[in-house]
Amino acid sequence: MIPLRYRAKSGFLFPAPPNNEDPQNNLDVEGNAVIGANYAGTKTAPPNGLLVEGNVGIALLAGELPQNNFDVEGKAVIGAGYAGSAQAPTNGLLVEGNVGIGIQNPGSKLDVMTTNTAANNILKVQGPTPGADPYLVVQHTNTPLVSPYQVGIGFSDPVNQLDVKGNVYIGGTPIAIPIPPVPFTGGLVVEGTVGIGSNPSILLPTNFLSIADLTGAGAFIDSFHIKIGVGPGSDYFKVKNTGRVGIGTANPQTRVHVTENGATDPLRIDVGAYPAMTVKNDGKVGLGIAAPAERLDLGGGNIKMGYEIVTAFGLKSVNALCPAGKRVIGGGFSAAIPPPTPYAVAVVHDSFPILDDTWHCGLMGPPTLPITCYAICANIR
Question: 190 - beta bridge partners?
Answer without folding.
Answer: 170
